[in-house]
Amino acid sequence: MFLTTHIRPATGQDADILYQFLCDLEEMALNRNHFNATLERNLADPLIHYLIAECDGQVVGFVSCHIQYLLHHAGKVGEIQELYVLPPYRNQQIGQKLIQALEELARQQQLINLEVTANQKRTETHRFYQRWAFQPTHFKFVRSFQ
Questions:
Q1: Domain coordinates of the chain in residue numbers?
Q2: Tens of pLDDT along 109-124?
Q3: Residue 2 pLDDT more than 80?
Q4: Which of 2, 110, 128, 129 is the most exposed place for a label (fewest CB within 10 A)?
C-alpha cells in the first residue's frame, strides 16, 4: 500500500527541511548562510521551481527544476537540479509523484525537454530516471573553483 502524497510549491518556511535534505544528498554540511540566501533568491525567481512532497503533513521529499531559454534548443528547457526522498519513504512512489508533477509543469511551461544530471556513483538514481524515459545522451564535465 502506497502513502497518500500531496505535492505543493516550497516556501521559505521549508528552509530547515530543505537544508537537511540537501546536506544529506550532498553528503556534507553546506554553508547555511549561503544556502538561505540562495533559497530566498531562487524562491523569488519565476524560472525556478521547488516542489515539496508531504505525507500526513510531514515533508518527506522535494524536487527542484530550473528553466532556461537555451539557444541550442531554440526554446525553454527544464533541468532537474535536485530530487530527494527521505530514506524511510523511498519505494513508496513519492519520487514518481514528484516527477509527474514536474511533467505537468513542463507541459504548462511548454518546455522542449526536461533534463537531469546525476552523479556517476548514484547508480540507483540512474535507473530511476531511466524508468521515467530519461536517456543518458550526454556527459557532464565539471571544473571546480572552490
A1: 6-131
A2: 999 999 999 888 888 8
A3: no
A4: 110
User: pLDDT per residue over 39-52, tens digit each?
Assistant: 999 999 999 999 99
CB 132 within 8 A of CB 99: yes
Say whether pLDDT at 78 is over 90. Answer: yes
Place of cell 556517476: 120
CATH, domain 6-131, list 3.30.365.10, 3.40.630.30, 1.20.1090.10, 1.10.260.40: 3.40.630.30
Q: Which pLDDT belongs to residue 1?
A: 63
What does residue 6 show for φ and ψ, rounded to 5 degrees?
Answer: -110, 130
Q: What CA–CA distance (Å, rounded) separates 114 from 71?
A: 15
Quick one: cell of 104? 505537468
* pTM of full prediction above 0.70: yes
Of 143, 138, 140, 116, nearest to 127 (Cα)? 116
Under 8 Å between Cβ of 4 and 55: yes
CA distances from 1 to 4, 58, 92, 135 (A): 9, 18, 8, 30
d(CA 62, CA 9): 9
